[in-house]
Amino acid sequence: FICLSFSLSTCSAHSYCILYAANTIHTVGVSGEHTAAGGGGNASYKRINPVSEGSCTVVWAVDHYDVFLCPHTEKGDFLALDLGGTNFRVLLVKVSDNGRQKVEMENQIYAIPEHLMRGSGTQLFDHIAECLANFMEKLGIKDRKLPLGFTFSFPCRQTKLDESLLVSWTKGFKCSSVEGHDVVALLRKAIRKRGDFDIDIVAVINDTVGTMMTCGYDDHNCEVGLIVGTGTNACYMEEMRHLETVEGDEGRMCVNMEWGAFGDNGELEDLRTEFEREIDCGSLNPGKQLFEKMISGMYMGELVQLILVKMAKEGYVFQGRVMSALAHPRTLQDLLRVLRELGLDPSPEDCAATQRVCQVVSTCAAHLCAATLASVLRQIRDNKATDRLRTTVGVDGSVYKNHPQFAQRMHRMVHRLVPDCDVRFLYSEDGSGMGAAMVTAVAYRLDMQHADSLTFFC
Q: Does residue 135 fall inside a structural domain?
């Protein structure tokens, strides 16, 4: 029975899979010696290196220029854009300080049609500018030049707080003439072309950084940001002495890991199944973001679909019938509805097999996510030279939020892998967008203070 054999082989491989992934990332990607980008494993160095365009380290470590500050004296109105999937959000965050800081937020979600996800970069950013104008018009703030933070959740080389060059598209996007270009400049160009409003783009960040910033506002022990949604990624606070391209050894800096690209140099070949290989071959970016294709929401449903199709073809479920509705890519939610719409009168065994496949796929994803997170927690613990780490992980993403068992399975496995770490998981509602506004608020205050000091000096 193929379902049973797949389930048992997957479950029995969990311990090996978890230890392999955790140890590989821990010893090669985050701590210890690191494989040089594009070096094929021959060159090595002691510190984390930033990504080179067109290549990556085992775990992509991109240096961020975000100062991790929890704002306490910030006040004012700040805009934020949050782009990281098929929808994007525009937010207005109001920070008031009447003895006790208060944060209020208004936001609206806008869709990105599929033809824009795969069209030209100009069309995409024109659409974003149009939606931003629509949002500001509705709130009656179109005549104000407000500071804005831009959450852009794709692999980038960040050179300044307000400058970020896209390395590669992921999560179904493939817009032309954007890779290698500064996304902030492209947004500014689209806004200038309209000419009906103006804004001050202060900062661009990744959604993981935004999530960590938001959670850090409520819990100052938050040192890790984690996203498990359409895609997956994480960031954490690293000691400056471990960052090769940053001057100085004192203090810490936020590192955007881009761990969705783990495995792109072949580290996960022993773990990837035929189903994950098939998904990769049919994707817009074959050979890229391999870890993301093993655990994120964009691909979990298709993994289940491919397993069920193979089982049906071999006569183990649905009386051996493969209906067209099942043969085409579906989301996990769609698959459950398909079972009722196929007209196959599925047997209790069919239903149990489908449930088991879904359980195995989601459990494996949760455990792989836990393994990579455990290695990051070890790194933080070792940095602090403490026997027991107490820290908080800020989490956001549709899979973590909406899957009924994913969070619990991931939590359990993290505690099992790092029993010497007391980890609190803090869910961040709208964390990535709110975090962009918070970074913008801090940066804007520092800019104003700097300008005032220059005026006083003159």
A: yes
Query: Residues 66, 82, 171, 310: which is the catalytic one?
Result: 171
Q: Does 451 reside within a domain?
A: no
Per the residue annotation, which of 63, 66, 82, 207 is the catalytic one? 207
- In whole angstroms, what is the distance from residue 102 CA to residue 316 CA? 58
The predicted-structure confidence for 396-438, as pLDDT tens digits, reads as follows 988 999 999 999 999 999 999 999 999 999 998 777 777 777 7
Q: Give the DSSP H or E segment for 402.
A: helix 398-402
- Note the pLDDT tens digit of each residue in 103-144: 788 889 999 998 999 999 999 999 999 999 999 999 999 999
**Which residues of the chain register pLDDT less than 70?**
1-74, 97-101, 245-246, 319-340, 342-346, 447-458
Q: Looking at the structure, do residues 280 and 396 belong to the same domain, yes or no? A: yes
Which domain range does residue 296 map to? 2-64+218-427
First to last CA, the chain: 81
Give CA–CA dist 119/114, Å, rounded.
Answer: 8
Quick check: is 46 catalytic? no
Residue 91 CB contacts under 8 Å (≥ 6 apart), including other chains: 79, 80, 81, 82, 105, 106, 107, 430, 433, 434, 436, 437
70: in domain: no
225 and 164 within one domain: no
Q: Are residues 209 and 101 in the same domain?
A: yes
Tell me if 181 is assigned to some domain: yes
Q: How far apart are CA 383 and CA 35, in angstroms?
A: 20
171 is catalytic: yes
Cβ neighbours of residue 248 under 8 Å, at least 6 residues apart? 240
How far is Cα 50 from Cα 158, in angstroms, rounded to an integer? Answer: 10
